Amino acid sequence: MPQISDVQHLPARSWLLRRRQLLFLARSSGGMRITRNALRQLAVLTPEQLKLPGSSLLCAYLRTEQGLRIAGFCLALNYGEDACIVIVRPLYRGRRLGARLLSAQLKQLRRLTCSVAADNMASLKTCFRAGLVAHEMTTGPTGKPTLIFRGELSEDEQTAEEGGMLCQNLS
């Protein structure tokens, strides 16, 4: 089972290495579905940007014989309005890891927007499984019809979630 954690407090040298790893993963595993703009935003991403409200980078790690390996990641900038990128290595697809990353991002940010080309069935399923709702259709940056997904957690959902976590920790 992958461990999902927030990537925010890395030293500068570690950050540069991590960003390079994520860029390689996005280019090699994105299946030509990641837009140039999304790749550009990832390429110039700084730790300071991740400290801004509504910005978060979550990575899913798996323990292997060689140590921890990044199985996938989810980047949201400005609550997903500026960027919402989900990448999962092909080896780990079909295990709903993308949906788990998006759900974790929604829980962390409390609201999230994601744009998905209408012909990208895997990403559409991922958004629906994560609890996002399609709100509108537009033309995306590549000229394709694109669905805009949104999700928002209410205070009641946050309180219930925290209560559930407390109950789990009591046993």
From TrEMBL:
Keywords for this protein: Transferase
Keyword Metal-binding: no
InterPro entries named among the record's database cross-references: Acyl_CoA_acyltransferase, GNAT_dom
Keyword Transferase belongs to the record: yes
Domain of life, source organism: Bacteria
Entry coiled-coil feature ranges: none
CDD domains the UniProt entry points to: NAT_SF
Pfam families: Acetyltransf_1 (PF00583)
Gene Ontology molecular function: any one: acyltransferase activity, transferring groups other than amino-acyl groups
Residue ranges of every copy of the N-acetyltransferase domain listed in the record: 64-125
The protein's name in its UniProt record: GCN5 family acetyltransferase
Organism: Paenibacillus terrae
